[in-house]
Amino acid sequence: MSHAGSRLLADLANRTTLTAQLAEELAGPRKPRARHDPGRVLVDMAVAVADGATTISDVAVLADQAELFGSVASDSTCWRLLDQLDTTRLGAVARARAAAREVMWAQRAELTGAPFPPAMAAGRELPGLVIDLDASIVVCHSEKEHAAPTFKKTFGHHPMLAFCDNTGEFLAAQLRRGNAGSNTAADHIAVLDAALIQLPDAHRHGTPILVRADTAGCTREFLAHVRSRRDDAVSCEFSVGWAIRDKERAAISAIPKTVWTGAIDTDGGHRDGAGLAEITGVLPARSLSGYPVGTRVVVRRERPHPGAQLDAFEERDGVALHRVRHRHPRRATRPPRCSAPRARPDRGPHPLRERRRTGPLPVPLVRDQSSMACRGHARR
């Protein structure tokens, strides 16, 4: 098996100064006569993971290719370095990653004229940056720290992750116990703040940022925090999922047929059998109590695919219902008629990690809702 592509990853870390930044930040843990630079060791471990490694000992695959990767630390050295990465030094690693990302985006701007590509929704470009938050199940086959039974009847961890949809980059994560709650606002807040710190300062404060999550992110505390980031000159908006309950079903039933408008798919074309309607004004007033001012609620319906499991309400009308809550105060009086900003198929959790999962990612609500509310500029 060739490892030439893995060598390119190591070269990329060098060219974007990631290796040097890690070495500088982790200069403390290194002993005076140490043979291996800690920054190089971390990069080699990251390259090994990208090459398919599942255990630390798999770094030996790189060590066996000395002519390609040079001197690679042993698994014992890797263990010792990881053991030294306490909370303070993990913060140093995060600073190194942020500094390297700033260099990389600047390099891209020199080559293409833009520091990052635009995120796409409904066949149109979204201005600014898009951050996707989601929790993922990581299965363990032995007793490990924080491993616990998960809601999917497996055993392992339930980390919270954040990705930049524009570039597909991993931004931040929080390792959590396997039985950690999906809608824990404190975890969403912590991961979002860590993700924002990873963005270069010029873009964190000078670029619109859309934060997306599934129904787990639809908590008053988290959405209020997203809104409060404006006090720090961080222009954040949100688009999150929201579960359909009895009061939502009653509101949907009260909508006249003339309110429904056609939906479009992710490429901007017409989506057959799908429609959108805003029900913000039909819901009971207390439904939006405690949520940021300007929150809007939009529902999407479409003909279910064969074999879809419908509840009694959906069986009555013969349509499947999906729901999103989206805050967008500008042009709030215009009817929503486009698809929601959503993750593209090649975005989201890293494919290597997803390949080792035992089931699909727990984000069907966000990824499958291809026709919902979106920013006013993208409405047709």
Notes on the protein architecture:
It is a single chain. The chain is an alpha+beta fold. It folds into two domains: 107 residues, no CATH class; 263 residues, no CATH class. The protein is built from 14 helices and 14 strands. A nine-stranded mixed beta sheet has the order 8-7-3-9-10-14-13-12-11. A three-stranded antiparallel beta sheet has the order 4-6-5, with no helix packed on it. Strand 5 and strand 6 form a beta hairpin. Helix 1 crosses helix 3, helix 2 crosses helix 3 and helix 2 packs antiparallel against helix 7. The longest helix is centred in the N-terminal third of the chain and has 26 residues. The radius of gyration is 23 Å and the shape is elongated. The C terminus is likely disordered.
Provide the fold topology:
Layout: H1 4-15, H2 18-25, H3 38-50, H4 60-63, H5 66-69, H6 75-84, H7 87-112, E1 119-121, E2 124-126, E3 129-135, E4 138-139, E5 148-149, E6 155-157, E7 160-164, E8 169-174, H8 185-198, H9 201-206, E9 209-213, H10 220-228, E10 236-241, H11 246-253, E11 261-264, E12 270-278, E13 295-302, H12 312-317, E14 320-327, H13 351-355, H14 364-368
Give a brief description.
The protein has 2 domains: 4-110, no CATH class; 116-378, no CATH class.
The total number of structural domains is 2
As a percent range, the share of strand residues is 15-25%
Radius of gyration from the CA trace? 23 Å
How many helices?
A: 14
How far from one another are the termini?
Answer: 50 Å
Poorly predicted parts: 329-380
How many β-strand runs?
Answer: 14
User: Main beta sheet: strand number and arrangement?
Assistant: 9 strands, mixed
Helix content: 25-40%
Mean pLDDT: 80
Q: Strand arrangement, largest sheet? A: 8-7-3-9-10-14-13-12-11
Question: N-to-C SSE series?
Answer: HHHHHHHEEEEEEEEHHEHEHEEEHEHH
Q: Give the structural class.
A: alpha+beta
Overall outline: elongated
